[in-house]
Amino acid sequence: MKKISSAITVLLIVSTGICSAQQSKTDTLPAPFETKSTKNFSKVIGWKDGQMPVAPPGFTVTKFADGLEHPRWFYVADNGDIFVAESNTILKGIKKIGAKISRKIKTQRIGESADRITMFRDANKDGVFESRYIFAENLSQPFGMLIIGDHFYVANTGALVRYNYKKGDTALTGAGTTLVTLPVGKPNQHWTRNIITNKKGDKILIAVGSNTNVADKGLDMEIRRACILEVNLDGTAERIYASGLRNPVGMAWAPGTNTLWTAVNERDLLGDDLAPDYLTSVKEDGFYGWPFAYWGQHADPRMKDDPHPELVAKTIVPDVSLGNHTASLGLIFYDQKAFPAKYRNGAFITQHGSWNRKELSGYKVVFVPFSKGKPSGQPEDFLTNFIVAGSTDSEVRGRPVGITLLADGSMLVSDDTNNTIWRVAYK
């Protein structure tokens, strides 16, 4: 492991602030490497006629749209227009060898990216679109989207770009203005860039995942990564809002509070049951451990050449464990009234699914109940049937990733490997 430079040490220590947390006296996590690390890429077989995800009794699941190319992320405008970022992991220059890797490339359709945004217009806001448009093309692995005033913001993997926009536009015009250049150094393992505004609406938060699993290429390759950045609407005054977050993707404000939450995809190669992915509140200037520690003050043994015990001691314990190697990505709070009361103000998280576990984990949407702005129970399954029960070959039907709510209170979930969007509604 390359030694950390003094400049980066200063950056990390400053970004952690003075937050601290006490580790629970009862440690239920297994020891690192207690089980052998496994490469178990799922085999995506798709949905047969009549098959679909399964929601709890009283809910209906229908196909909202298909024929996309890796629908990753959503943004819903005030007028009901639904924007879908179509983007994918790019494998240019990577050797495609080994049976496990080959299966991932073939069945999960990894390799090329459509690099566009498709828009669906639901004029009467009944959860069924009337028209469909190619809203933007020739982007660069687009992900997060925002409309602020007369501008449409797109978070490409390497830049935050702003376009002129008028309510009701069906296509972006012009080249756009690059506001912030974002880090994309090889291998750019976590390439997605989600964006939301702060509570006042005068700043943009940008989620940037780590470049590697656990600073494998040295910490000088991880500057401005594994963190949430904050910038003004014009891209100026950048600062690190929170750090030590290996791959924060979904971000949302808990209803009725000023508390930001994020879903974090944690590190691999420590064993079947390490380390837990999590849902956590985000404290300004807080440090959440990566790469030095996981789940509070659990030091990662792979950082023995650069242990930084002072940063391990400052690591904040996350709020809710979402399971190991679940690839928890999408996050929304249910702030509408169509679903039963138990779901109101609670969190829904999509789990794209594991590759580093002997038994598959994730591949579903889970629900975390909230009360008075805080978690009030453990995660429970909400949308399932993605894993093929009884399969001896790690077969799955799809992989959920994006999630959003429509004006009628129904929910959309994207299945990127099947180029499909599912709609979940309460009868």
What report would you give on this structure?
This protein has 427 residues and is mainly beta. It has one domain (34-426): Neuraminidase (6 Propeller), CATH 2.120.10. Helices cover 6% and strands 34% of the residues. The protein has 3 helices and 31 strands. The protein has a 5-stranded mixed beta sheet. A hairpin with a 6-residue loop joins strand 15 (248-253) and strand 16. 47% of the residues are buried.
Task: Name its key features.
single chain, 427 residues, mainly beta, Neuraminidase, four-stranded antiparallel sheet, 3 helices, 6% helix, disordered N terminus
Parts with pLDDT < 50 across at least 5 consecutive residues: 1-25, 93-97
Structural class: mainly beta
Strand content: 25-35%
State the separation between the terminal residues, measured CA to CA.
55 Å
Average of pLDDT: 91
Number of domains: 1
Radius of gyration: 20 Å
> What's the overall geometry?
globular
Please tally the helical runs, counting DSSP H or I stretches of 4 or more residues: 3
The CATH class turns out to be: Mainly Beta
> Share of helix among residues?
under 10%
- CATH topology (fold) name: Neuraminidase
Reconstruct the topology from this structure.
Blueprint: H1 6-16, E1 43-44, E2 59-65, E3 71-76, E4 82-86, H2 99-107, E5 116-121, E6 131-136, E7 145-148, E8 151-155, E9 159-164, E10 177-181, E11 193-197, E12 203-208, E13 227-232, E14 239-243, E15 248-253, E16 260-264, E17 276-282, E18 286-287, E19 293-294, E20 298-299, H3 309-314, E21 320-324, E22 328-333, E23 347-351, E24 364-368, E25 370-371, E26 374-375, E27 380-383, E28 395-396, E29 400-405, E30 411-415, E31 420-426
